[in-house]
Design a protein that fits this description.
- It is a single chain.
- The chain has about 210 residues and is of the alpha/beta class.
- It is about 40% helix and about 15% strand.
- It contains 9 helices and 7 strands; from the N terminus they run αβαααβαβαβαββαβα.
- Strands 1, 2, 3, 4, 5, 6 and 7 form a 7-stranded parallel sheet that branches.
- Helix 4 packs parallel to helix 9.
- The radius of gyration is 16 Å and the shape is globular.
Length: about 210
């Protein structure tokens, strides 16, 4: 089967879901807790490509899930067993439940049929969340992973999806991390070994046909 036909088969709208990872205002918005990451995702057009791909998914009937990382104001249930978690506690912008920081960032569209899955702990949008059960209930077999960051949450999502038996598809120009050359290396040397690596346009083309 030619590569384009294989990708189209993997991306059947009836059995595919699009996942946006931490595309929330407090992470990728203009008032981000992580300004370097926010600048990378916005200045390179990654956030715009995620928004366009999400809109295409809506039109094609592809299920969209938005994975949001947040924290209770009292910190209950949050982990402190990693340097990343402890550093996040000291950031000027906090990803607090109910705040604007945990709203999906513009210009990514959120439709009524989208599922927003929020987590209070951990590094992965899948592990310890409802995502796996939701996907199985929807008959999903392929998960398209987009968002941030290529440093932590995105590879976690891809590995967990593969470990759970899903086919993972990664549009390489719809993920971001810092520095930029790390993202490219991650895609080439790691994600390409376990996922189908493609582009946002190629995914969108499959959903338009």
């Amino acid at each position: 089967m030619p590569p384009t036909d294989r990708l189209a088969a993997q991306l059947d709208p009836a059995t595919t879901a699009l996942l946006t990872v931490e595309c929330q205002r407090g992470v990728v918005g203009e008032e981000s807790a992580l300004p370097e990451l926010a600048h990378e995702v916005r200045s390179t057009g990654v956030l715009d490509r995620i928004a366009q791909l999400t809109a295409t998914a809506h039109r094609a009937g592809v299920q969209v899930l938005h994975a949001v990382a947040e924290r209770r104001p009292d910190g209950r249930g949050a982990g402190r067993n990693a340097r990343l978690f402890r550093a996040a506690e000291r950031l000027a912008v906090q990803q607090l439940t109910g705040s604007t920081a945990v709203q999906v960032a513009e210009p990514v569209p959120v439709a009524d049929q989208d599922l927003v899955v929020r987590r209070l702990h951990g590094l992965s949008p899948l592990a310890g969340t409802d995502v796996d059960a939701l996907l199985r209930n929807l008959g999903v077999r392929t998960l398209v992973v987009t968002g941030v960051s290529a440093n932590v949450a995105v590879p976690n999502a891809v590995f967990d999806a593969v470990n759970l038996g899903y086919t993972a598809v990664v549009p390489a120009d719809a993920i971001a991390g810092v520095p930029a050359d790390y993202t490219a290396a991650l895609v080439r040397h790691t994600l390409a070994l376990v996922a189908t690596v493609t582009t946002a346009d190629e995914v969108a083309d499959c959903w338009r046909n």
